[in-house]
Amino acid sequence: MKLYSTKSPNKFVSLKEAVLNGLPADNGLYMPLDFAPLPNTFFENITQYSFQEMSFEVCKHFLKGAIPQADLKAIIFDALNFDVPLVRLNDHQYILELFHGDTLAFKDFGARFMSRLLSYFTKDDNEDLVILVATSGDTGSAVARGFYEVDGIRVVVLFPEGRVSELQQRQMTTLGKNITPLSIKGSFDDCQRLVKEAFLDASLHQKLRLTSANSINIARLIPQMLYYFETYRQFQSKGMDTSKLVFSVPSGNFGNLTAGLFAKTLGLPVYQFVASVNDNDVFYQYLQTGEYKPYASKQTISNAMDVGKPSNFARIIDLCSTWNNVKDEIKGFTVNEEETKEQIKSTFSKFNYTACPHTAVGIEGLNRFSQAEGECLGVVLSTAHPAKFKSVVDETLNADINLPNRLEVLKEKQQNYQTMSPAFEDFKSFLMNF
Ligand SMILES: *Cc1c(COP(=O)(O)O)cnc(C)c1O
Questions:
Q1: Which of 48, 82, 123, 358 could bridge to 302 as Cys pair (CB 3.0-4.6 Å)?
Q2: Are the C-beta atoms of residues 355 and 382 closer than 8 Å to each other?
Q3: For 352-376, what is the mean pLDDT?
């Protein structure tokens, strides 16, 4: 498998280099060169596979010898060890529940796969690898959990002080061992900037072997393609008509949606992608005007999507080339706080289904798409378990939803973390002594 940087399309690296570097030195993003579609036989036989077997077939084709088949199979079967239920609301609306992993959010897919890939690629090295990850909540907890106690890897997680939910924070700050959490006095964008600056800093690179686990790392996007195929597999297994398959993707950094575009480019028959965003609408505005104008993020109840400068934007442009193509591939909807809460309520009253705020944004986006474009086979990616956002969901539904046991036990554990200013010098001196 060969990859290039979006800023140097003629220079290639291996999958190992791309995964270990995280970000190319020219500040672009790594992209796979070859998107040859999967063979027809794969789609004809898809119902005969399990989720893991199908995932192995997709990765074998896409990664083209970057990892020997037996090792790849072991990584996939170990990383993707949880269910991906497709829940029916009605004939035109389904919810793909991506929250059945360790930290109850879809980021477990990327984190578990990436940790095993990194550990595989560095198994013969002496020096520790240091993973830097900026989080608005869910990435940090998934990465911390996914890399916990993985040999040869240390993780530094940066989260914005007071802007992640208590449970998200506890998922990052109660592990210890090879996981170091930093509470940054700033926004998610500050955290993301600190990580980016660290990667571009030559003296830090000399001192530490750094890599990133944000959705800029290509290793996270690979497993995220797989549940788009899984949706198709489950519909095909039920003999359903998938000719108007629409995915509504609650989006922040657009890693999830980019992975969907990857799947489509590999031949998955997707009729339409819908980008559902909250008040952080920079991508929505881009779709309307053709102008991309990043701005500081705003805080919302769907906080994992509070992103003012989506980090995968360059990948979407690279794949689609022009604004017109982007507009064809992706329809956008922006959903405000009130509308999100209304949707949590009406999804519960109509379907007896409890949606987290991000999922509710996705459901609202799908509804608006169907109103505008007619009925389809709509699938909303449900990115987190509602209990991860218990206070908002409880308040909105006037309820007291149950915490799954995995979250309940966190309340008893001791938190350990440092607080830090958003100035790069402070972060740098911390890393120089790490
Ligand atoms: C990260 C996250 C999102 C946004 O995903 P992107 O890939 O950054 O667009 C949506 N919902 C939840 C719960 C998340 O954790």
A1: 358
A2: yes
A3: 97
